[in-house]
Amino acid sequence: MDNNWITLKGYNKMADNTFPNIMAILTGYNESSAFNKCDPTILNMLDYCPMIWNDFRKFGYVTAFAEDESWISTFNCNKKGFNHQPTDYYFRPYFLKTESFRIVWKDDTKYCTGPEPAGERLLNVIKEFGVAFLERPSFGFFWTNSFSHNSLNAASGMDDKIKQFFEDITNAGILENSIVIFLSDHGLRCGEFRETTMGWLEERLPFIYIWIPEKFQKKFPAEFTNIKRKVDKLTSPFDLYMTLQHLLVLSDFNYVMKPSSGCSNCKSLFIETGSERSCEDAGIAQHWCTCADFSPVDGEVQKIVNKASYYFTEQINGIIHNNREGEKCAAYSFHKIVKTGVIKSYKDEKYLLLAIETKPKAFFETTLAYHKHENEDEYFEIKGGISRTDRYAPHSQCTQDTILKKYCHCKLNNTNI
């Protein structure tokens, strides 16, 4: 995008999928805190979660939340969702009703619901909300899944409609008084492209564009300068959480910013920060961190790769075994190594990037710390998470558990190995 939109080229996701990355923006929680304090699998828990839109509402903002593709939506996919209306305008009932129209499926999503794409319906909701409250403070959080969730190329089919959307909100005067953040949560998490180096990066570096109106630039020149300086720096969803809070402070409300519990060092994009920053500083675990050098596995590391692969497989089986529904899933055995590499952090720490294939057939990837003391066996530690890089939905239908689904190969499907 051009026309003076700010692009944060170093915006790095902080966890695997949609829910934790969005919760980091809306609550400042990391993944474990989001599940512990706002457990979406328990009825009513999300209703008492400290979403940032509640803070805006306290100061007179009209709030809205809308998301298309209801079956894979952020708070309802294998989750209980909101039991009470979370915002002043809540569009889930509307999108559920539109899905009763004639549906055109594309890439396993409801691309069209009735005479128009579901994503276009969402764009229309955004425009109408912006126009309706042009003269009142408003906060809207809008999310689309329908035209980009399962395909690298499908999003291009909406290019003209997205272009028209931005022209429409410009002509309507919405951009004159609104800060707009246009972003994604993550890239494509599985498939052939994901297996490439570019795919590894694309998954971890979702796009983000920020519009700052001219009125804000003139009133807060220092803050505007600071956010422009972040273009080539490492940023994370936790920074966005702090930025949203900062907007309430800049609006002259008696608001006290709360540190992000998931990243105590993270700061608003409008605040000046140092020139150096690590993924740890930004609340990003090593497995998702893109600030690293890659090199092939050398002779010394090659000696431990097989042992690391068996360790990795045991860790996956441990996750399954410790889950209350784990008995529904087959145990994995290590089959072969798919990819290896050495990752060197800015602190000169070395990690092993390891991708394996298992039996039953599944593909997993992780980042391992490895240590070996004299006269002792190697010691491994998973650093930040596990990626499942093949499409697992057909093999995990026996469970609706949010965590287990990524790892499970249902015993009933065990003939397909």
CATH topology value of the largest domain: Alkaline Phosphatase, subunit A
CATH class category label of the largest domain: Alpha Beta
| β-strand number | 16
Going by CATH, what is the homologous superfamily of the largest domain?
Alkaline Phosphatase, subunit A
Class derived from helix and strand content: alpha+beta
Number of distinct helices? 11
* Main sheet: strands, sense, barrel: 5 strands, antiparallel
Percent in helix? 25-40%
Estimate the mean pLDDT confidence: 92
Residues in β-strands, percent: 15-25%
Provide the domain count. 2
N-to-C SSE series?
A: EEHHHEEHEEEHEHEHEHHEHEHEEEE
Low-confidence stretches: none
The shape is globular
Task: Outline the secondary-structure elements.
Layout: E1 6-7, E2 10-11, H1 18-27, H2 31-37, H3 52-58, E3 62-67, E4 89-90, H4 92-98, E5 103-106, E6 109-113, E7 116-117, H5 118-132, E8 138-143, H6 159-171, E9 180-183, H7 197-204, E10 208-211, H8 214-219, H9 221-228, E11 234-235, H10 237-250, E12 293-295, H11 299-321, E13 333-344, E14 350-359, E15 362-372, E16 378-388
Parallel strand pairs: 2-11, 3-4, 3-8
Antiparallel strand pairs: 1-10, 5-6, 6-7, 9-10, 12-13, 13-14, 14-15, 15-16
Helix pairs in contact: 1-10, 5-6
GO cellular component, one term: extracellular space
InterPro entries: Alkaline_phosphatase_core_sf (IPR017850), DUF229 (IPR004245)
Protein name: DUF229 and/or Sulfatase domain containing protein
